[in-house]
Design goal:
The protein is α/β, with parallel strands linked by helices. The protein has helices at residues 21-24, 38-54, 67-80, 104-110, 130-145, 158-169; strands spanning 10-16, 27-28, 60-63, 85-87, 102-103, 151-156, 189-195, 200-208. It is globular.
Length: 217
């Protein structure tokens, strides 16, 4: 992602947004729109300072239009002088149906988790199934790979980014939310190189958040 980037290779970094008010209140955010907390803004600035020191740069930042992602993206775009910022609804967080925006306590009081949840069922009547989210993540990734090779930063959310990692690594959704879960804390990122002439992904890092002190799970 430096100025010596290979012009025939995609450099793709997937970043989870900074801490939001919804995170602080222990809410299942989904499509509910919560702004960054002061800590979230500090996390984004800390990451920007780290990437400045490392000489990292991007040609385009693509962000979810939800405010916790857009604010994170704008902080990084300004600090790193990225020439292009775009907003793509495909990178929005998972639709959690009736649970969207509720606290953990509210969810426990109002809902009983099903004993079995297959990956094709909608979530809480109107939400996305695992497979729907997986397919959306694949579509979002595909749109990037239809562009010219360049240095791309995606600023999005934990669930959609986990399914993007599934798509890159060739992991299918599993029943009852089983299967791997990637630890993308607030402003943690994963970086990859993609060689289109060989259809080869190269993993650089997954879950790096060393710019910020140890965070709670």
């Amino acid at each position: 992602m430096t100025s010596e980037a290979n012009p025939s290779v995609f450099y793709i970094t997937l970043l989870r947004h900074g801490e939001s008010i919804g995170n602080v209140e222990n809410r299942l955010q989904g499509l509910s729109d919560f702004p960054l907390s002061e800590t979230g803004r500090a996390q984004a600035h800390a990451l920007a300072e780290r990437w400045q020191a490392e000489g990292l740069g991007f040609d385009t930042v693509i962000a979810s239009p939800l405010s916790r992602a857009t604010e994170t993206a704008r902080i990084l775009v300004e600090a790193l002088a990225v020439p292009s910022l775009e907003f793509e609804p495909l990178w929005m967080e998972r639709d959690m149906g009736r649970r969207s925006g509720m606290t953990a306590e509210e969810i426990r009081a109002q809902f009983r988790d099903p004993e079995f949840l297959n990956p094709y069922d909608v979530f809480e009547q109107s939400g996305e199934s695992d497979w729907a989210l997986y397919l959306r993540a694949g579509q979002a990734l595909h749109r990037i790979l239809q562009r010219p090779p360049a240095r791309y930063l995606v600023v999005a959310h934990g669930a959609i980014l986990n399914m993007t990692l599934y798509a890159i690594l060739g992991i299918a959704p599993q029943p009852r939310f089983q299967g791997p879960r990637f630890g993308l804390r607030n402003t943690a990122f994963a970086s990859f190189l993609y060689y289109p002439d060989r259809h080869r992904w190269q993993v650089s890092v997954i879950g790096d958040s060393t710019h910020w002190p140890v965070q709670k799970g």
